[in-house]
């Protein structure tokens, strides 16, 4: 009986020792960069600008490239563009309504085949999204996540000048999809 209990204990301890240790990383808003680009429906007009992360974002990984969980908070009030009129319009109720929805949140479900799958909450609406992501270790205690995602703004209730909702917009039509390129730095 003692041999059986001893063997079970060794097996249990061995199984526990093989479990990867989860490491928590904190996202660095100052060291991270988010660049958005919108597109006119016709022509080549494609304004772009920046956004900043809000404090409090975290990543959980079992190795430098095995991301298991993430909570990425974006401060939508920081949406910036060189043209102040366009910047204020994008921050307003026609687009991101930053007064009522100051943050956006991405929560990771899993990463498989270079694709991060999770849920994005933007302007109070949550949708499943899939994002190509590259994870690069930077030294022993830091990670860099990079990628470019395309989002359909109308899925989040941003319908302004969308030809899917309004007719005869001509040169005022704005494509539904916009692009968000990210370089997120995180450290332990």
TrEMBL record:
It comes from the Bacteria. Residues 24-187 form the Lipid/polyisoprenoid-binding YceI-like domain. Pfam families: YceI. Residues 1-22 form the signal peptide. The keyword Signal applies. Coiled coil: none annotated. InterPro entries: Lipid/polyisoprenoid-bd_YceI, TTHA0802/YceI-like_sf. Keywords: Signal. This is Lipid/polyisoprenoid-binding YceI-like domain-containing protein. It comes from Hymenobacter ginkgonis.
């Amino acid at each position: 009986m003692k041999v059986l209990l001893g063997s079970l204990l060794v097996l249990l301890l061995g199984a526990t020792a093989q479990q990867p240790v989860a490491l928590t990383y904190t996202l660095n808003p100052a060291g991270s960069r988010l660049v958005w680009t919108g597109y006119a429906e016709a022509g080549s007009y494609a304004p772009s600008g920046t956004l900043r992360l809000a404090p409090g974002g975290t990543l959980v990984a079992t190795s430098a490239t095995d991301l298991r969980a993430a909570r990425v908070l974006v401060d939508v009030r920081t949406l910036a563009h060189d043209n102040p009129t366009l910047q204020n319009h994008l921050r307003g109720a026609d687009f991101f309504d930053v007064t009522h929805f100051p943050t956006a949140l991405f929560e990771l479900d899993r990463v498989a085949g270079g694709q991060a799958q999770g849920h994005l909450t933007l302007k109070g609406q949550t949708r499943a999204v899939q994002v190509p992501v590259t994870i690069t270790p930077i030294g022993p205690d830091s990670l860099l996540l990079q990628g470019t995602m395309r989002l359909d703004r109308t899925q989040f209730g941003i319908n302004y000048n969308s030809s899917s909702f309004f007719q005869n917009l001509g040169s005022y039509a704005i494509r539904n999809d916009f692009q968000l390129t990210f370089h997120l730095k995180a450290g332990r």
